[in-house]
Amino acid sequence: MRTFVLNLIAHRLLIAGLTLLIVSFAVFFATAMLPGDTATILLGQAATPEAVAGLRAAMHLDEPAVFRFFRWLAGLAQGDLGTSYVNNVAVADLIGGRFVNTMRLAGITTLIAVPVALTLGITAAMFRGSLYDRIVTILTIGVISVPEFMIATSAVLVFSVYLKWLPALSFANEVTSFWQVLKVYAMPVITLAFVVSAQMIRMTRAAVIDTINTPYVEAALLKGASRPRAVLYHALPNAVGPIANAIALSLSYLVGGVIIVETIFNYPGVAKLMVDGVSTRDLPLIQSCAIIFCIGYLALITLADIVAILANPRLR
Amino acid sequence: MENLVEIRGLKVEATTDSGRRLDIIKGVDLDIAPGEIVALIGESGSGKTTIALTLMGYTRTGCRISGGSIHVAGKDMVTLSERQRAMIRGREISYVPQSAAAAFNPTKRIIDQVVEVTHIHKLLPPAEARQKAISLFKALSLPNPEQIGDRYPHQVSGGQLQRLAAAMALISDPKLVIFDEPTTALDVTTQIEVLRAFKSVMKKSGIAGVYVSHDLAVVAQIADRILVLRNGEVQEVGSTETILNNAKHPYTRELLSAFEPKPRGDNLGAVSQAQPLLEIDALTAGYGPIQEDGLPLVRAVQEASITVQKGRNLGIIGESGCGKSTLARSIAGILPASSGKLTLDGQQLAPSARQRSHEQLRELQIVFQHADTSLNPAKSIEDILGRPLTFYHGMKGSQRSARIDQLLDMVQLPKALRSRTPAELSGGQKQRVNFARALAAEPKIILCDEITSALDTVVAAAVIDLLKELQRELALSYIFISHDLSVVEAICDEIVVMYRGQKVEQITPAISKIPQHPYSQLLFSSVPKLDPNWLDSLERDPELVKAYGQA
Amino acid sequence: MHNKITNWTASDDAMVENAIRRGATRRELLSMMLAGGVAMSAGGMILGRASDAIAATPKSGGNLKAAGWSSSTADTLDPAKASLSTDYVRCCALYNRLTFLDQAGIAQMELAEKIESADAKTWTVKLRSGVTFHDGKSLTSTDVVFSLKRHLDPAVGSKVNAIAKQITDVKAVDPTTVEIVLANPNADLPTILSQHHFMIVQDGTTDFSKGIGTGAFKLETFEPGVKSIFAKNPNYFKSGGAHVDSFEFFAISDDNARVNALLSGDIHLAASIKPRSMRLVESQPGFVLSKTTSGNYTDLNIRLDMTPGDKADFITGMKYITNREQIQKSVLRGLAEVANDQPISPASVYHNAELKPKAFDPEKAKFHFEKAGVLGQKIPIITSDAATSAVEMATIVQQSAAEIGMNLDVQRVPNDGYWSNYWLKAPIHFGNINPRPTPDILFSLLYASNAPWNESQYKSEKFDSMLVEARGLLDEAKRKEIYGQMQVMVAEEAGTIIPVYISNVDAITEKLKGLEANPLGGMMGYAFAEYVWIDA
Amino acid sequence: MTLSTPFSSKVSYSFSWVGMVGLAIIVFWAVIALAAPHIIPYPIGEIVDEDYFGPMSSKLLLGSDYLGRDMLSRLMMGARYTVGISLAAVCIACFTGTALGMAAAVIGGWFDTILSRFLDALNSIPSKLSGLVVAAAIGSSINVLIVMLAVIYTPGAYRFARALAVNVNTMDYITVARTRGESILYIIFSEILPNIIGPLLADFGIRFVFITLLLSGLSFLGLGVQPPYADWGALVHENISGLPFGAPAVIVPSLAIASLTISVNLLIDNLPKKIRDRSA
C-alpha cells in the first residue's frame, strides 16, 4: 500500500514536471514574440546597425529561437536564470529579495484567509439554508464583485489618510517589531484576503454540503452526534480533497495575481518585477518570473493532489 | 407488559419541489414490547424506513413529523428538543443502516466509529469501549476480532461490514435496534451468516428490534411480528406465523405469491433441434496492465466457454465478484476480451464493440441492473426509446412515434409516459423502459445483467413474467445474469454457476439436473425459504462454508 | 498611470535642470552665456508660501522620504544612462556636474571653478580644489576627462551621445584643468554641461551600483525598481551640505497611491500629481502644492511624409479643431498655459509673444478638412497614458471633430513600449517633450531636418540655416529675432500641435521647507534633496 | 425515499423572487446596453461641466467625471462594454472549455492527458500578467480583449466541465450509447451535456464575475476599451480620485458592477425549476 501511494505521488510529480516543460516552452515563445527588438531598445539612441548586430550576437539573439530555448532550459536546469538584459544583473539576484517578499505576503495572507474562509464555508454548510448561510453567500459574491483596486484604495483612504492608523505603503516604514509587521501588512493582507477568500468559501461550502448528504453523516447523527460533530468529524475529512484543491487554486493567485495590490501599496514583489520586465522587454526576467509563477501554481496544485491522496485511506 | 414503543397516529409530511405538502405516512399505530422484534415490510416507497427513523425522532431532509405521538421508553420523541433527541439516539435506540459500506465513514478506522457512540454519550472510557467492541465482534463471529477494528471500511468485506455496523449499534446496550434492510446488499451465502449473528445477539441480550425489509423470507426468519405497509398506511399486522399462513390483505397475498414456485413455460420442446446462437469459446477477460502472457493482471473471467441456443435462455449465477458481470461486459464488447472467441449466429464478433458492425451491435443488446443509471435522466422516455429506432432503423416522425407506442405497449406501460423523464417513473417502470430500449433494436439476444435485483419482490416477479411473454412473441434469447437463484430458475433453461471467474457447473433444472458441485450446492441451499424455522434448521457443512463462503 | 517607461523624452529632463544655491560664484564668461539660458518664470512659485520658505532658517536632521512616479529594474546610477525622473533624483543626490542652472536658467559653476573660451570652440575648465569622492579620493581632471569621454563611446549607450558628439577632444592639462575642444563654436557649452548626464564620476568606474560621487549624499541602499536610501555626506565640499540626515527615494506609479501615501504621512513629497488629485490635497490641512510652470508639453504629431499629414489642409484643420482652452481648463484644471504650436514656452526669454494660438474654430476646421478631402474618413490617432494627459487630449479633439463630422479613431496603446513602438512612427500620434534649456537644443533635437526626434518629419533648409546662424550669434536681439521667426515657421509649417505648456505639480507636506520654484522641472529640477529641510 | 404516487401530468415552473430580481436587473442592464447610443443625454466624450467630480444634479443625473463629462452617459455606454465583452468572453471560454472538457472525458487516454497538461500550463500563468504580455505583443482592441479573456478563462471551464463529464461518463447510459455504436459527438452533446448543464451554468456565472473583474483589473494596468469609451471597471479606475469626496463618478460604476455580478449569480443560483409535481 505504501509503495502504491508513493507511486501515485511520483505520478503527480511527473505530471507537474511535464506541465512545467510545456509551460516553459510556451513562456519562452510567447515572450520571444513580443514586438520590439531587444537590442535596439537596449541601445536606445546609440543604436547604430553595427552596434545592434554586435549586441544581438553577444546575446545570442541571432540564433534560431529553438536554440535559445534549449540554451535557456539548460541554464534553468542548473539553476541559472540568466542575466537581465537591462542592467546586467543576474536575474536570480533581481528576483531573490522580491521572491521572499512575495512569499511573505502570500504566507501571511494564507494564514489569515484560509482559516477564515474555511470557518465561514464550513459553518455556512453546517447551517445550510439558514439566514447565516444566505448572508455568507451573498457577501462572498458581493465581495468578489468589487474590483480589488477599489477595496485597496478605500482601505488606504479610511485607515491611512483619515484615521492614520496604518501606513499607506507597505515597505516604506522599517519593520522592526511584530506590532509593526501587523501594521504594515494589515491592509495588503486584508485586501488580498477579500479577493481570495470568496472562492474558497464557496468551494468549501459546496464540498462540505456534498459530504453532509452522505449516509455516513446521517449515521453519525443517528448515533446522537451533534450537528457540528457530524460535520467536523465525519463530513470534513471526506471533503479534504476538493477543499485542498480550492485552496490551492485561490492561493496560486497570491503568487502572481497580486500586481494591483503590489502597485497600490508599493510592495516590492515578483509580480511588479515582471511588469517591469514587460515594459523594458527584459526577456530573461519575464521568463524567469513567469516560470516562478508556474512553479508556484503547479506546486500548489500538486500539493493539493497529494493532500487529497493522503487524506483518502482507500489510496493510502 | 408495558410496551417499549407506542406509536399513535403518526403522520409524516414531505414538501415537494413546488412547495406542496403531502403526507407520506398517514396515521400509523405501532407497539413494540421489550425484546420483541417487529418487521416492517413493504415495497420501496411504502414508508417503512421513514417510520423506523421517526422512532429516533429523525426525518430526512424535506420531511417532518406532522402529527401523532411516538413514545419510546416513556418519552415522546415528537415533543423532545433536538438536543434531547440526540441524547437518546445511539444510546437507547440505535440504527443499522441498509448499506454499511455507505454508512461507514471511509476516512475513519472502524473501531473509532464503532466506539464513537460511547464517546458521544460518555458511556465508557475508551479502553473499556474498545474491549466491549471486541467482545461484540466475537459475538458476531467476525474473524480476527482483535485487529479487524483497526482497518478502514474499504479493507473489509460487505458481510463483515454489515456485522460491524451491528456492533456499532449494539455497543451502547440500546433498548431498541432499528435494522434497515441490513442484508439486502449481501450475497445469499453471506446473508445467512449475518442473519444468524444478528438473531443470536438479539435473543441473548433481549433487545427489541425493528426490522425493515421487503424480503418476506428473510423477515420470516427473525421477526416475531410483521407489519405490512403500503403507501404510508398499515395494511395488515400479525404474528409472523399468521402473516405467512393466514394473510388476509390482498397485498400481503401478492407478496407471498411471489415466493410460490413459478409454472415454467416449457418451450424446450418447441425448439428441439438446438441451434447455437451465441458461442463463447474459452473467453478470458479482466483488468489491469497486460502481462507477458498477453492477459491482464486481474482476470475476472477465465477460459469460460458457454453456448446459448436459439430461442432458449441461459442463466449465469454466482455471487458478487465471481466475474459474471465482467463476462456480460465482454460479450457486449464494453470490456474487450483478452482471449477467446465470440460467435453470434455464425459470425465472429470482434472483442471490442467499436470494431463490431452496426448490425452486430443491433443484434446483441445489453440491459443493465440499475435502471436509474441506464436511462439518461435528462431525456424523455420518447427520446430514449426513439434513439435506437432512428439509429438502427432510420425511423422518423409518425412511424417512429407509432413504434414507440408499440414498444411501450409491449412492456405494458401506458402511452402517457412517453413525455416523462426517468425520474418520474417508479423503479419497475424504469426497468421496463430500459428493457424496451433493448427491444427497439430488434435484437436476437438480450443480455440481462441483474435486471431484477434492484426491484421489489412483487415488481421483479412481474418483470420476469413480462420477459417470458415477450420471448414467446419475439423469438428472443436471453442471457440472464443474477445472484438470485429463484429468478434465474424461473426463466432459464440452463444455468451456469460461476465462482471466482470460472464456470463451475452447468445445470438444466427443467430436466431435473441437480447441482453436483459443492459450491453450487452451498449456493442453492442458501436461498431463504418462507419457513420461519428455515434458518434455525439449516445445516451447512462448516468446511464448505469456510471454503466458499465470503463472509 | 503616469509611468514613463522607456521614455526617451524624459531621459533629457536632465538637460533642463537647474539648482538654487547660496554663494555661487559668477564669472564674466557666464554673463555672455545668459543668452543660452531661460528667464525667470512668472509661473514658477510655491503656492502660498514662497516668502515663508525664503525667510525661514534651515533646520538640520530628519529623514526625508519622497516618491517619484516611475521606476523599474532599469533604474541606474550611471548618469550617462539615466532616463527616468527617479534616476535624475538619485544622480543629483550622489554626483555633481561642472555647472548647474539656477532658477533663472543661468549656468552657474559647481565642480568647475571657471569655464573659459576665447573662440567658443576650445574651452578651458578650471576645477574646484578640495573636492573628494565618497570613498575619499580627490577629484582631479582625469575624472572629468573620463566622465565626458564616456558619452562618446557607443558601448556605453549614453543618452546624450548625440549632443556629446560635438566634443572632438577632452584632455587633462594639469590635475585641476581640463581642455575641451568642440567641432564648431558653441557658446552654450556651460549650459550643455549642466545636464544631468554630464555628472562627474570617478575615473575608471565600470560598476555604478556603488554610486561613488562627490554629491551631498552617500549611497546606503540601492534596489533597482524598489528604493534607494542615502545618508548625508559629511565631507561635502559645499559648506553645510545637506540639511537632512538621510534621504529615501522610491517610486509609486499609481497616482492615487502616491497622493495617499503623502496624506497619510508616509512620505514628505509626492512628485507630479494629476490635476484630478489636486482637490484632495487642497482639502487636507498640512499639505500644499508646488507648481512649476515650464516648457513641458504634450503634442499631437502629424507626420508630414505620410497620409493624411501630407495634406497641409488636414494639419490646419486639426489645429483649428483643437480646443486649447478646454484642454487647459478641463484636462489640466488650469495647470497649464495655452500654447501656440511651437516649443519655446513663455518661460523663455526667446518666446515669441506675437505668435497667437489658433483659436478653436470648428467651421474653419471643417473648411480645411473638406479641402483636404478627408472629411468623413476614419483617421486613426495613436495615444497613450505614457504621454502626460494625451488620452484626455485625444478624446477632446475627437469629440470636437465628431461634431463637424470628422471621424477621429482614437487608439489608446499601453504605456509600455509606447516610446519605442509608436512615438515618431505612427502617422498621427502623441509625444511628450520635457523642457530644454535653450531654443537651440529644442530646435536641434526636434525640428532640424536631421533632428533625431523630428516628430512630424519637418524639413526646411531655411530653418536649418537659421538654426546654425543663431547658434553662432552673439547679438542677443538679433538672436531673439531669428528664434522668433523660427517659432512662426514651426507653428505654421510643422505638423506638431502643441496645445498647452503643462505645469508640473508636486504635492508636499507643510513640514517640508526650502523647496523652491524652478522654472525648468519639478522637485527643484530633481535636486531638491540637497536643499530642503524638515521642520518638525 | 421515493414514493410512487399517481403522477400529475401538469408541468409548472417555480421561479423564486430572488431569481426574478436577478433577472430583472440583468434585463435592465441589457436594455440599457442596447439602447445606450440612443438614450444617452450627452455625447460621452463631451465636457459638459466646468467642474469635475460634480455631484448629482438635475442636469447631470449622476454627476460628472474627472474631466467634467456626463457620468450617466458614460455609465450607459459602459454597460455595452462590460456586458458585451464579459458576456462574449465568458461564452467563448465556457463553450470551448466545456466542449474540450467533455471530449477529454469521453475520449480519455492521450487526448485527455495532453489536453489537460496543456490547459493546466495555460492556467498556471497569472491572468493579469498574461493579459499584459498579450496586450504588449498585439495591442488591445475589443476583439483582442475578448479572445484574451476567453483564453485566460478556458482552462478553468475545461477543468470544471471535465470533472463533471468524467462522472457522467461512468454512467450506464453512456455505456449503452457506446455499445449502440454512437459517435463521440453524439455522446458529448446529446448524452452528457444535458446532465451537467446546471453546474455548468453556475460555473458560467462565477466566471462571468471573474471576467468582469479582470477587465477592470486590466484597465488598472492601462489596457482595455478604447477612449472615449470605457467599461465600468475603467470608469471606476479613472475616477478613483473622486473616492475621498464620495463622487458619484466612482461610486455609481462600482455599484453597477456589483449589481450586475450579484444578479447574474442570483439568477443562476435560482434558475426557474421545472416542476413536475410529484411527491418527495
UniProtKB/TrEMBL annotation, chain D:
Keywords: Cell membrane, Membrane, Transmembrane, Transmembrane helix, Transport. GO terms for biological process: transmembrane transport. Pfam families: BPD_transp_1. It is a multi-pass membrane protein. GO terms for cellular component: plasma membrane. Gene3D superfamilies: MetI-like. PROSITE patterns: ABC_TM1 (PS50928). Its main location: membrane. CDD domains: TM_PBP2 (cd06261). It comes from the Bacteria. The chain crosses the membrane at residues 15-36, 81-111, 131-153, 204-225, 245-268. The keyword Transport applies. Residues 79-268 form the ABC transmembrane type-1 domain. Signal peptide: none annotated. It is found in: Cell membrane. PANTHER family: OLIGOPEPTIDE TRANSPORT SYSTEM PERMEASE PROTEIN APPC, PEPTIDE ABC TRANSPORTER PERMEASE PROTEIN. Belongs to the binding-protein-dependent transport system permease family. This is Peptide/nickel transport system permease protein. It comes from Aliirhizobium cellulosilyticum.
